[in-house]
């Protein structure tokens, strides 16, 4: 293969902007790119940039209904709400040129998928992507077009027979699950906060797929307050066995950083260090199960300065093979840029100083532990469909 990492990037990706008071602020992506540049991530051997073009209407129709695409175009021109399509709601305000901005994000994920599928790079990233809630016929949860689903659908159209999707955002990857719920070519795995306490209210272990795809929708619903050790235990007990059995041709991951304890919209308590360890695990699994073919997407994350830029800089550095020491200081030039750009004081280090030790689920199931119950419910629901004993 060619380069180790290709980053799909265009400055226009920051035009996906619901306005100054909306939690999904594009400055988080801007600060991430700036921090990566200061650390020299993009200067590492084998790292390059991919040209980005907006997704075409024909591509978008792989996952979205034509009437919805027309509604997005209309809303971005008239700036009028279209509530049947959830355009103009508090979560999804209408903004000028909404279609153009959303299609560019979707096109960047297609560019990443194309890069990996064509063997131009082992890994490819679109950190402005990961808009996993958008549905076939309406916007949902800050997401207009579902770029993650489009990347997967594009791969299937090229002839891929097995694509795995792993979603580590704090919110359930409901849009992606819905679009491939009956397709056994796609294994969707989502680890998220329980639907009892967080949007979108879906993602129970009992949601396992239909027909020939029974067992190919996997949901690990974790209780509020889940920390690094228990989250990593849940990840290790579910994701590696399924990926190793499924053997995808491409691994697509959604890397929402909103599992962090500082995130204002959710209730898990992970640290940057726990998130970083997850990136390392996904990188290993891409190599073990998918021949190294890894498409990385962004996602949620609403602590715009303290969390997202550091988390995704670790992610991109990991994918580039030039991991950053968690104890490293953030560059002064970046801290100055953060103050100028946002008025906030930037973090001094790339770590939260958390020790990453977790107990393997192989040590035994504790029925009195809420996380263990969540793990076992998922394993019981889907492991048999893959020929895996849920008790082992």
Automatic annotation (TrEMBL):
The pathway it acts in is:
Ketone degradation; acetoin degradation
Name the Pfam families on file: Hist_deacetyl (PF00850)
- What domain of life does the UniProt record list for this protein's source? Bacteria
A single Gene Ontology biological process assigned to it is: epigenetic regulation of gene expression
* Keywords assigned by UniProt, alphabetized: Acetoin catabolism
SUPFAM superfamilies found in the cross-reference section: Arginase/deacetylase (SSF52768)
- What's one GO MF term for it? histone deacetylase activity
Q: For the Histone deacetylase domain, which residue ranges apply?
A: 22-317
Q: Does the keyword Cell membrane apply?
A: no
Q: State the family named in the UniProt similarity comment for this chain.
A: Belongs to the histone deacetylase family.
- What this protein is called in its record is Acetoin utilization protein AcuC
- Origin organism is Halostreptopolyspora alba
